[in-house]
Amino acid sequence: MTTAGTPGHGPLSGVRVVELAGIGPGPFAAMLLADLGADVVRVDRPGGPGLGIDPAHDVTNRNKRSVLVDLKAPDGAARVLALAERADILIEGYRPGVAERLGVGPDACHAQNPRLVYGRMTGWGQDGPLADRAGHDVTYIALTGTLGMIGRPGEPPAVPANLLGDYAGGSLYLVVGVLAALHHARATGTGQVVDAAIVDGTAHLSAMIHGMLSAGGWQDRRGANLLDGGCPYYGTYATADGGYMAVGALETRFYAEFLHLLGLDHLAGAHDDWSRWGELREQAAARFKSRTRDEWTALFEGSDACVAPVLSLREAPHHPHLAARGTFTDHGGITQPAPAPRFSATPTRVRTGPARPGADAGTVARDWGIPDPADDDLVPDGD
Question: Which of 110, 128, 260, 344 is most buried when burial is the number of CB atoms within 10 A of its CB?
Answer without folding.
Answer: 110
